[in-house]
Write a structure and sequence with these properties.
single chain; alpha+beta; Glutaredoxin; Glutathione S-transferase Yfyf (Class Pi), Chain A, domain 2; 2 domains; four-stranded mixed β-sheet; 4 strands; globular
């Protein structure tokens, strides 16, 4: 049985859970609490899995695979059906670019480490922290909306009419945007795609509230 080191609220782990579910792969969750006791991810037993102290990590026979996009690409290579990337190089590049817009441009500015640093090291108060979060989410999603709305390859999902790597990244980011009360009315294409994904069991089963470590 596959084992995924995960935290229920981690956007990156959420991406991998969606991908595993879309591919119909069975897995066990190994919870790693990112807050309790200063963060279980910084304990020696987990640092031996991922020295960066980040989730997710996927345990394999050859050793752990880290970084959510690398894990999903690994799953794509090991279990190519159903595909999460299109067949043509240009279309695959588009899907990867959409995924990276979330994973490299939006998420890093708003993950737990950054928010904790703003508060605990730079002295930001709650209002300032939320202003930071909402600003960068709005900037990133505005770009994402333009990429999606302006391209005829956008279909029911980010690319075409079946979910791809891009949807695996977008949905967790939207979940957190809602959690932090970010306004989303300016992004109708994104909201339409979100609605379509929410109708699929693979996405629902991956949601934070449905995880064994949910609080």
């Amino acid at each position: 049985m596959r084992q995924l080191y995960s935290y229920f609220r981690s956007s990156a782990a959420y991406r991998v859970r969606i991908a595993l579910n879309l591919k119909g792969l069975q897995y066990d969750i190994l919870p790693v609490h990112l807050v309790r006791g200063g963060g279980e991810n910084f304990k020696p037993e987990y640092l031996s899995v991922n020295p960066l102290g980040l989730v997710p990590a996927l345990a394999t026979e050859e050793g752990p695979v880290i970084q959510s996009l690398a894990i999903i690409e690994y799953l794509e290579e090991m279990h190519p059906e159903p595909p999460l990337l299109p067949s043509s190089p240009h279309e695959r590049a588009r899907v990867r670019a959409l995924a990276q817009t979330v994973a490299s441009e939006i998420h890093p500015l708003n993950n737990l480490r950054v928010l904790d640093y703003l508060v605990n090291r730079l002295g930001a108060d709650e209002e300032q922290k939320l202003a930071w979060y909402r600003h960068w989410v709005n900037e990133g999603l505005a770009g994402m909306e333009a990429l999606l709305a302006g391209n005829p390859q956008t279909g029911s999902f980010c690319h075409g009419d079946r979910p791809t790597l891009a949807d695996c990244c977008l949905i967790p980011q939207l979940y957190n945007a809602v959690r932090f009360d970010c306004p989303l009315d300016a992004f109708p294409t994104i909201r339409r795609i979100e609605t379509g994904c929410s109708e699929m069991q693979a996405f629902r089963d991956a949601a934070p509230e449905n995880q064994p470590d949910a609080e």
